[in-house]
Design a protein that fits this description.
The protein has about 400 residues and is of the alpha/beta class. About 35% of the residues lie in helices and about 30% in strands. It folds into two domains: about 130 residues, NAD(P)-binding Rossmann-like Domain (Rossmann fold, 3-Layer(aba) Sandwich), CATH 3.40.50.720; about 200 residues, Dihydrodipicolinate Reductase, domain 2 (2-Layer Sandwich). A hairpin with a 2-residue loop joins strand 8 and strand 9. The structure holds NADPH dihydro-nicotinamide-adenine-dinucleotide phosphate. The site of NADPH dihydro-nicotinamide-adenine-dinucleotide phosphate (NDP) has 34 residues, from helix 1 and helix 13. NADPH dihydro-nicotinamide-adenine-dinucleotide phosphate binds next to helix 1 and helix 13.
């Protein structure tokens, strides 16, 4: 049906490549390209399908990207490199006339700040070129927005309170490790908290607000309010929301390590001079931490991510909880990666499938909740991320 170029061969790229290779009738030709070609070759060899080729590319370099895209001529570029590359890849897509999908919004390298404004600024260019850009199509962002759209479409007349809850109750056996790119992960969880209430953003100190929440099949876990990127688009696309928050579980051991890392300056993003050479502390830290893609082998337990929503249906107050639990062991057995990469890579594959099937295809730049959630929700059940619903339950929030 279509040709797709995947850029990025980390944990998420591994899962996207595995899942696409299982559907040759949709993804008839696949190219997996990244900075380090040997990683692409290793993934392709493990998958062992005959419609996948690999290539080397520096995704910071637009002319290089354009040459690669023009030589392979894909219908869609799936960006699962790092958020720093979003704009260069979007530029290259525009130049070569190809549509685009990613799983994380743009972040400038020299500023720990993520916002959609940089990518939303491409709307007119994509519209004029007749191309589609699908932003944030992982789990969160991604499925979290699609769950919200599905709830608004089928379960409520008005959604008013949204809490996205993200629990990783897995154990990888390491004293400290991050489940996806350490640089991006540490930048995300150490920044100030922020949530939406009554038409305005409310700022908090990092990890200032927390409470225990119970997760299905897992039990109670301390959950911390953090800012997460999908809140920015969800409060615009669902203007009836009176409050929107994001919660993530952290263990005490993780938080203690994080505090020490920050206190000693290892989370810094400003280059320092070390023995005559400039190094960025957080990039050096990344080099010594366990690699996220290597955590899977000993990972046990599950993730549980969902949306807890309160609103009005037929004139009455209603509560609704939709979630997925994903086992680290099962994810590893299937793709050789842990559940965080799995829960991100599967939605990226489904988003690409939606585009190739013409179900999510429109000129412009879109967040996932702007498309019809129904075909995507159906595919989540088919391709490894089944979802469950609970109605009129205690959401554990006021
Ligand atoms: P990894 O660090 O494991 O992999 C990133 C890959 O991108 C590596 O193969 C890396 O190459 C490659 N890369 C980095 N810079 C460049 C470049 N300039 N040119 C070409 N390739 C490059 O990250 P993950 O797989 O864990 O995450 C991938 C993306 O998914 C990230 O953007 C992350 O933020 C996002 N994500 C989204 C989630 C969601 O739910 N929405 C959840 C988790 C992650 P090399 O091997 O040479 O370093």
């Amino acid at each position: 049906m279509g040709k797709v170029l995947i850029i990025g061969a980390g944990g998420v790229g591994t899962v996207v490549a595995h899942k696409m290779a299982e559907l040759p009738e949709i993804f008839s030709e696949i190219m997996l390209a990244s900075r380090t070609k040997s990683k692409c070759d290793a993934i392709a060899a493990r998958i062992g399908c005959n419609n996948m080729v690999t290539a080397q590319v520096n995704a910071d370099d637009v002319p290089q990207l354009v040459r690669l895209i023009n030589s392979f001529k894909p219908d869609l570029v799936v960006n699962v490199a790092l958020p720093y590359q979003d704009l260069t890849i979007m530029d290259a897509c525009l130049e070569s006339g190809v549509s685009y999908l990613d799983t994380a919004n743009y972040e400038p390298l020299d500023e720990a700040k993520f916002e959609y404004k940089w990518q939303w600024a491409y709307r007119e260019k994509f519209e004029k070129a007749g191309l589609t850009a699908i932003l944030g199509c992982g789990f969160d962002p991604g499925v979290s927005g699609i769950y919200t759209a599905y709830a608004a479409k089928h379960h409520f007349d008005e959604i008013q309170y949204l809490d996205i809850v993200d629990c990783n109750a897995g154990n990888h056996g390491k004293a400290f490790a991050t489940n996806f790119n350490p640089e991006i992960n540490i930048r995300e969880v150490t920044q100030k908290g922020k949530y939406w209430e009554n038409g305005a953003w409310v700022w908090t100190e990092p990890h200032e607000i927390h409470q225990p929440l119970s997760y299905p099949r897992i039990g109670e876990k301390e959950s911390y309010l953090i800012y997460h990127e999908e809140l920015e688009s969800l409060v615009i696309n669902f203007p009836t929301l009176k409050r929107a928050r994001f919660w993530m579980t952290f263990g005490l051991e993780y938080l203690t390590h994080l505090r020490v890392i920050q206190n000693i300056g290892m989370a810094g993003i400003v280059p320092i001079l070390y023995e005559g050479k400039e190094i960025v502390p957080i990039q050096f830290l990344k080099a010594v931490l366990p690699k996220p893609e290597e955590l899977g082998v000993n990972y046990t337990g599950e993730t549980s991510i969902g949306c807890r929503i309160k609103g009005i249906k037929d004139g009455k107050e209603k509560t609704y909880y939709i979630y997925n639990n994903c086992s680290h062991e099962a994810a590893y057995a299937e793709t050789g990666t842990q559940a965080i990469s799995f829960t991100t890579g599967v939605p990226a594959m489904i988003g690409a499938k939606m585009f190739l099937e013409g179900k999510w295809k429109s000129p412009g730049v879109f967040n996932v909740e702007e498309f019809d959630p129904d075909p995507f929700m159906k595919d989540l059940n088919l391709y490894g991320l089944p979802w469950y619903e609970l109605t009129d339950v205690n959401l554990e929030f006021d």
